Amino acid sequence: LPVSGDSIRRRFLQFYASRGHKVLPSASLVPEDPTVLLTIAGMLQFKPVFLGKVPRLVPCAVTSQRCIRTNDVENVGRTARHHTFFEMLGNFSFGDYFKKEAIKWAWELTTIEFGLPANRLWISIYEEDDEAFAIWHDEVGVPVDRIKRMGEDDNFWTSGITGPCGPCSEIYYDFQPEKGYSDVDLGDDTRFMEFYNLVFMQYNKRDDGSLEPLKQKNIDTGLGLERMARILQKVPNNYETDLIYPIIQKASELANVTYDTADNQSKTNLKIIGDHMRAVVYLISDGVVPSNIGRGYVVRRLIRRVVRTGRLLGIKGDGIGNIDRAFTPLIAEKVIALSNHIDEDVKGRAGRILEELKREELRFVQTLERGEKLLEEMLADALASAKEGGRIPCLAGKDAFLLYDTYGFPVEITTEVAQERGVVVDMEGFDIEMDNQRRQSQAAHNVVKLEVGEGADIMETISDTEFLGYDTLSAKAIVES
Ligand code: ATP
Ligand code: MG
Ligand code: MG
Ligand code: MG
């Protein structure tokens, strides 16, 4: 029987606990640091300790941290390895052990505890980090051609524009060793998957970009639980692991499709639902409610994406015959049923989570339906005027954008329905409107300052004003919050 996700988590914690690490609970998805939007990595709760602002309570710790990365939202379902919600297993040293122990333990964990064959593992190091090279090569015994030196983008981890940072070293799994050793690019994700990142956190990046050595050298690591589960359970992607697949199955049931025999687009849609439903359940559980600002806007966008995606899959109403009911609570029940070892508080909050989802979904469906009506009118107009002028019927880009922006109407649905009626959509015009909107909204959304991790990307995602129009006809929500 393949190893369960739960047992991988438990064994990771146990491995480091028996090497002197204190097992600490996951922090909330809403960080204590008010300047940070969401918890994107295990290190976040320890940031003040790394910076020396707060004394360490223990020399080293191990956690399984629930994380949200909205910068990966577009990757969900498209790559085999990215989620918006995932668990990051991490071991941390607060001025205790450093590079040598971190590397040796990571190798022991990977090859002995989890039993991955050494010849399937590749290492990346920061280009200037000869010390890491020596440890991997001379002490651990990884052959030279399986250690890749990489630049700052890949192998110098910064927790944000400023803050603790340092060179890092990552372990990759090779799914296609038969391809050999020459011309290898670790970025080729059909062949490789990064799963463990070891950050040698020894600097503080200042406002001016300069690096100030920290008083003590720290270790910050992250191993993606779903990624390790994918490897050990020998499934083609993270979504088919026992951590997520039951949620996908529930969604398939409601959509009346079979995952295994579904086409690729439907599979991707099911993965999106499987992913986003986890994100929204844990976010709501941690106290984030749908709104038009900051974290609330993240939840709102994710719920709406689930609802739209569900409709693309043909889920009507609650999917079991009640046209005026919501389906997201039914899938959320599955997420909650799987939550025990991820966050034991979720079960007790189930009522509120389901209620919040139901309300948000039903409200959004109303908006969508109003949009559908409007689309029918627009198409009728387009057909009529084309007939008069003897032209090809065309839906203006600004109309498609209005549907998208104000009614949360995915442009793919607009084009699909239009096509059925023999109307083409002016996508160039749509893109222009979209760009304008993006630029305008940038300022309005700079309310949440982000310092941590891929901040720029998160900001971009947040300020993507899908749906903003309808709910903030007055823009009041933004100003008030
Ligand atoms: P990738 O290059 O695959 O996007 P990353 O370099 O951005 O990953 P890190 O910031 O190094 O990831 O995070 C540490 C570990 O957390 C990764 O090695 C991976 O196992 C896991 N991880 C990161 N992002 C995700 C995600 N979106 N979904 C699932 N696991 C993730
Ligand atoms: Mg990434
Ligand atoms: Mg990476
Ligand atoms: Mg990485």
Please give a quick description of this structure:
It is found in: Plastid, Chloroplast; Mitochondrion. With 481 residues, this protein is of the alpha/beta class.
Task: Provide key terms for this protein.
single chain, 481 residues, alpha/beta, BirA Bifunctional Protein, domain 2, 2 domains, nine-stranded mixed sheet, two-stranded parallel sheet, 17 helices, elongated, disordered C terminus, binds adenosine-5'-triphosphate, binds magnesium ion, Probable alanine--tRNA ligase, chloroplastic
List the helices and strands and how they pair.
Layout: H1 5-17, E1 22-23, H2 47-50, E2 60-68, E3 85-93, H3 99-113, E4 121-126, H4 130-140, E5 147-150, H5 152-155, E6 156-158, E7 163-174, E8 192-205, E9 211-224, H6 225-232, H7 245-255, H8 264-285, H9 294-312, H10 328-337, H11 350-389, E10 394-395, H12 397-407, H13 411-420, E11 424-425, H14 427-444, H15 455-462, H16 468-471, H17 476-480
Parallel strand pairs: 1-2, 4-5, 10-11
Antiparallel strand pairs: 2-3, 3-9, 4-7, 6-7, 7-8, 8-9
Helix pairs in contact: 3-4, 7-8, 7-10, 8-9, 9-11, 10-11, 11-12, 12-14
This protein binds adenosine-5'-triphosphate and magnesium ion (3 copies).
Adenosine-5'-triphosphate (ATP) is lined by residues 69, 72, 81-83, 86, 88, 194-197, 222-224, 226-227.
